[in-house]
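Deliverable D4.2, example record:
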Amino acid sequence: MMKFESPYGVVILTDERKSHILEFHPDVRRYVQYFAQTLAKPEIIVTSKHDANAIICYRYFPRQRRYLAIVISIGPRPFIITAYVAKKPKNTTL
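Output generated by the structure prediction step:
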């Protein structure tokens, strides 16, 4: 289990979620080292269209021209649902 500081409190990444992310989004492996930065100071935050209790935190990587997107469930015990690499962020900002 990993823990990260964020504007929403301490966010947990369970071993199960980390395994899921790396299995279904293997391109995220090279970005795991940036999870702490991305969650501590997200460059962009958007609400999830699918879950009112979830937000997506983004950090841009200019060399790759990609965003690291980390989806977290906010609430009393915030946790990472998934993470993926995107060409652009979703539209709805907080």
